[in-house]
Amino acid sequence: MKTSISKSILLLFSIFLFSNLLAQESYVLQYKYLKGSTYRYKSVANFSSTQEMAGQEMKVTGSTESVSRIDIDKVAANGDFTIIYSYDDMKVTTKAAGYDTTMVQKELIGKRTKYIFSNLGKELSSFAIDSIKIGGEAMGMDLGSGTNQKFNELPGNKLSVGGKWSVNKQDTVAIGGGSMLTKASVEYVLVGKEMKNGHNCLRIDYTSKLEMGGKMNQMGMDMFIEGTGNTKGSVWFDQAKGIWISDESEVDTDMTIAMTGQMAMTIPMTQKVKTVQNIIE
Question: What separation, in Å, do the N-terminal and C-terminal C-alpha atoms of the chain show?
Fold first, then answer.
């Protein structure tokens, strides 16, 4: 009897010690892209929005499916890397009352944007290489808007499981003859090791608080946009190769669109977007 108890105590102690050693294992996270390499990702985003206009509630649902291409143009000695970002494919499906359509975004396919990132994923600079025509007007297009969110910013220090870090970032997107600025305060936590899409990965969970504001013009009317939102998600990072493998997120936003001019009104809008992105190999 005493022998059995002793063995049980020893087993429990071994389990505790092993778990403690795993928890203390530390990792250094950084991107390790190779010059001349190409990475492609498939993204599926399902969205729904509800807005009130002139006393009427309008609901819209749909999805965006895309294949993005990341060509590694340069890698500096310190690990900073330059990418050429473009879309190989993109289609948008939209459903509303009496409306159901799918559109292939041909004007975006193949159009390139150049980005420079640090080896920790911080965006250093960007500019549009190609322009597209919208309504017959040629314009520069930051096709990678949101790319800095695909490259989650990593910490510069060693981390153990449960380790946390935070990042403040902002992103400006051209929209409807104007632009919208989104500010995000992101909190990350290292969850642990997981297999994902055949890769030995570290799973990183994240949450963020969003603030949005901007102005656009449609049919001669100025529209001012304000809103807030929340994001939660997980990214799977292959530490050995220094690349991200998958990213899954959910975003909820509440916005107000104020219209001026002859049709002055305020339109409240809520949106939900669930996105799954996976590397294509």
Answer: 56
3-state secondary structure of 248: strand
Say yes or no: domain 28-280 is CATH 2.30.230: yes
Q: For 81-94, what is each residue's pLDDT tens digit?
A: 999 999 999 999 99
Contact 222, 215 (CB under 8 A): yes
Report residue 94 CA to chain centroid gap.
21
Tokens of 120: 């920790």
Cα radius of gyration rounded to whole Å, the chain: 23
User: Stretch 164-171: mean pLDDT, rounded?
Assistant: 91
- E strand or H helix that includes residue 149: helix 147-150
Handedness of CA 226, 231, 166, 154 (dihedral sign): negative
Contact between 221 and 261 (Cβ < 8 Å): yes
| Cα distance between residue 237 and residue 121, in whole Å | 12
Task: Report d(CA 163, CA 205) in Å as an integer.
Answer: 11
Q: pLDDT tens, 109-151?
A: 999 999 999 999 999 998 889 877 654 444 444 444 444 446 8
Helix (H) or strand (E) holding 3: helix 2-24
Distance CA 33, CA 243 (A): 7
Q: Are 227 and 271 in contact (CB under 8 A)?
A: no
